[in-house]
Amino acid sequence: MSKTKEQVTAERNQRLQDLLNATNSWADKETARLENESKFLTSILKGRTGAGKLTSQNVVDSSKLTVNAINEFLTG
Questions:
Q1: Residue 71 is part of which domain span?
Q2: Domains in the chain: how many in total?
């Protein structure tokens, strides 16, 4: 007994929906895992004596230097 076009389409659509559900589930779990890992690593960094503040200050200082260098280049 052969399947009708509607049955084949319905089965294909179900497989696609199953794939979509599996992909969304995986993405949600992976996002949660990465967020938890980020929080954990950030807490370790903050727990180190001054390392978090030093890193933050380096970012601020680097940003200032970059902005100043661009301004000097643009203004001559």
A1: 5-75
A2: 1
